[in-house]
Each structure stands twice: as C-alpha cells, then as structure tokens.
Amino acid sequence: PIEPSVRLGRTLPVVDAETLRRALLERLPDDVPHNELRGLVRRPSTVLVSGDDGASGFAFAPLPDLAVAFGSPGDTEMDALEDAARSARVEPASVEIHAPLPELERLADDGRVRLDEPMRVMAWNADAAGALRDLAERHPTRALEPDDDALDTLPPAVQRELTKPDTWPANAASFAGRAVAALAHAFAETETLWDVSIGTGPEFRRLGFATAASAALVLHQLDRGLRPVWMTAKSNGASLALATRLGFTQVGVAGSAALVP
User: Fold this and answer.
1) Helices (H), the chain
2) Which helix (H) or strand (E) holds 229?
3) Is 116 buried (19+), middle (13-18) or exposed (0-12) by CB count in 10 A?
4) Quick one: which of 221, 141, 225 has its CA closest to 186?
5) Mean pLDDT score of the chain, rounded to an integer?
6) What sign does the dihedral 70-71-72-74 (CA atoms) show?
7) What is the band of 70 on the pLDDT scale with cuts at 50, 70, 90?
8) H-run or E-run covering 123
9) Closest to 121 in 3D by CA, of 231, 210, 200
10) Is the pLDDT of residue 85 over 50?
C-alpha cells in the first residue's frame, strides 16, 4: 500500500528545526505517496515535531489541525505533538494524524490514537486532460486573490485555511451569481505535485460547481508543470465520484486517526 511516511535510517547529529527540515527534504521522494508530507515540510510555518534523534516525528500544520508522520513515532513524539498542538492553541483531540496503517494500529493499541477509516490515495491520469476544459466551463470560474470581495462569501474556517499558509495558495472558485459556490485550492504542494482540497456550499452540491472549480485548478496547475493528487475517505462517495470524473484512479491507501490526549 501507499504509505505517507519515511524512515530516516540513521539518527541526525544535530536536531533543530532547520536541520530536520533539510534532512527530510533530502530523503523524502517527490512522489504521490509522500506528497502530503513533503508539501507540509516545505512550508516554513509547519511545526516539525520529533524526538531527540530526529528519526521519527510529525509535520504538524495547525490549520487544518493535521499531523503527518515520518518514521515510527512513539510516546516521546506523541507527547511532543500534544505540546505543539497546545502551543498553537489547537485542542489536541481535534488533531488528525496521517501515517501508515501499521503505525497507527500500533499507536491505537497503546491508546495514543483513535483509528478513523483509511483514505484512498489517488493519482491523476494524463489521458483525462482532454476532458478538463469542458468540465471547467460548466460554470463561471476564476482564481481568488487575497483582497477579493468574494472571500466574504466563504465560511470563516475556509477563509482562515486560505490565509494561514506562508504564500497564498493556487486556487479556483466556481460562482453562482456573485457567491462562491465551490472552491478548490492546492493544500500541499511539492516541486512536481499538489494535493487537491475542495469545498462546496451545501446548497450548491450535485450541480457541477465542484467539478468546474477542480477542473479549472487542475488545468492551471498543469500549466505550471504540477500534477494533482487526490486523497479521500473510503466512504466519501461524492468525493470519489468527483475524483473519478476528473481522471483520478486509486493507487493505494493511507491511514488516518485522531490524537487521544
């Protein structure tokens, strides 16, 4: 299975944030399984949590309260993740952890996490490129800028997620009149890949707005030389149907769990 983790092997002689960041980027492949982890590590605002030797830990993003594991985190790393969450004024119980299933099962046996359902990891098929433009034209779409008045039509949580990263993320919004009906943005971006994040207003679902926004953003990112990656819960039929429509196919699974303080 595809596993969003990496084993550093030997420990590091000096473990500070920048040393660990450089070590991870040197060892993490720029591929689909590691896209989320590598994308978070590349952000200067990501909190890197590790034990004394730096061999295991988490890349923690206070928004959206996500921690992606590397190595084999144990009690020391889990305690450090709790401390990092509290320092960021995040309730530890709201932190979602992504890691290989065997690692999460071990942590669940120790009472440190509560297992959620696994996620599908999906890669994009370039043969689907020809259909994207028609899908993107189902509704009016455009990118949002930081000073765009249309941001006021988004839920506050979505506004915070957009403004939290170090740089304004690539995005595409589809519109119903003046209101944003659906917004797709690049959550985790590496040198060649990016992770699709999509949100649709409840009243605009099943009307093609998410399809238009996602297709428009995929086209934009392809022009930049970046291929999309899709991750979704196995039971999320709407997300799976949208991904399939856009040309994604499953290549593996990733574990998901909630931190137990």
Assistant:
1) 17-27, 35-42, 75-87, 101-109, 129-136, 156-163, 209-223, 237-246
2) strand 227-233
3) middle
4) 221
5) 90
6) negative
7) very high
8) strand 119-124
9) 231
10) yes
Q: Which two tokens stand for residue 126?
A: 């370039």
In the structure encoding, which two tokens stand for residue 144, read together?
């949002």
Q: Which residues contact 16 (CB under 8 A, 6 or more apart)?
A: none
CB 115 within 8 A of CB 231: no
Q: Give tens-digit pLDDT for 121-157.
A: 999 999 999 999 999 999 999 999 988 999 888 877 7
Residue 2's identity, in one-letter code, is: I
pLDDT over threshold 90, residue 36: yes
Rounded to an integer, what is the distance from CA 145 to the centroid of its chain?
21
pLDDT tens-digit readout, 158-179: 777 777 656 789 999 999 998 9
Contacts 24+ apart (CB under 8 A), 101-107: 101/1, 101/3, 101/253, 101/254, 101/255, 103/5, 103/69, 103/72, 103/73, 103/255, 104/255, 104/256, 104/257, 105/255, 106/72, 107/73, 107/78, 107/257
The contacts of residue 134 (CB under 8 Å, 6+ apart) are none
Nearest Cα to 117, choosing from 260, 256, 5, 259?
256
Tell me the HSE value of 205 on the side-chain side, using a 13 A CA sphere. 11
Give the Å distances, CA to CA, from 48 to 6, 37, 62, 106, 253. 14, 11, 11, 22, 24
CB burial of residue 243 (10 Å; 0-12, 13-18, 19+): buried
